[in-house]
Design goal:
two-stranded antiparallel ribbon; transmembrane helix; globular; calcium, potassium:sodium antiporter activity; K/Na/Ca-exchanger; NCX_ion-bd_dom_sf; calcium channel activity
Length: about 375
Amino acid sequence: MLLSIAAIIAGFALLIWGAERFVTGAAAIARNLGVTPMLIGLTIVGFGTSAPEILVSGMAAFQSNPGLAIGNSLGSNIANIALILGLTALIAPLKVRSETLRREYPMLLMVCLVTLLLLLDGELGVGDGLILLAGLALMLYGVIYIGRHSRASDPMESEYAAEIPQDMAMGGALLLFLLGLGLLLFSSKILVWGAVNIATAFGVSDLVIGLTIVALGTSLPELAASITSALKGEHDIAIGNVLGSNMYNLLAVLAMPGLIAPGEFAPEVLSRDMPVMIALTLALFVMGYGFGGQGMINRFEGAILTLCFLGYQGWLFTQSAPQPPQHAQAPAALSAPAHTTPRDGTQSLLPATSDGGETPAANRNPSTTI
């Protein structure tokens, strides 16, 4: 147990550190190749923040734990909206000023709808995984199109430009990228190992572990990035990181178990987890889109989102709490009434003879004497 807990803690620490290096290196490579800050932010940074979820889910699927992979995908989306944006809005109310960001809201809703339709049959198969990857390609095309046609005065352009390293040489950027990728692979392996052992020890399903411990841990990079961006006044990046990450989580992360370990999944995914995720996505759309005005997530709404996350985690805990073990019924040979002597009605522990009497002491086997 202690070794499993240590593996989870070390896995999360290396995962966060590796993800940061991976994103920084990839962004610097793209910057050296002449890619605009907007496109880097919408594609590479968005993918990089979901890299922990992608690798953890892929590793879980390879180790025949698709429930953990599915839980990681949906749980990360729930944590991104309810916990990350909730806590960030409590620290600093988030204003949506970017027209580019407003165009991503309908895309996320469409991705959620497609994912729901694919899961309605209770299975996640290879065909579903391929459709999700095709949706990922279409999403990337749409994001690139939006980025190229965004106004130069869009706030996200300057916010991303301030965050992307400008003076890193190509060699250093490539080395940092490979280092981050290696750490992501290694940390995801030990994290999945520890999480599966914890699930086994506490008697809960891989799905619940994915929805709770693993989802929260893999969302820590988004939490750090969003809070840091909000404190710098880069509100659009704080929200944009979540929107981009959630689309990648559904299209890329959820495709992993479908392609690697296809099969049926727990019914709670459709009856509990998908409705919660879609409801939070709709709430984010209503709060952030700003119908007829500027979108904003204020402190009160941030508190509501945070409470929703805590309530959901409590719901998971009550549903997955191990049941007290049922006492097994004694075998018939042991539950049969003991021999009763005809004299006083008391029960005798002495072996009985074939005619119902007790075996004489002289004829007893010493090993059966009590």
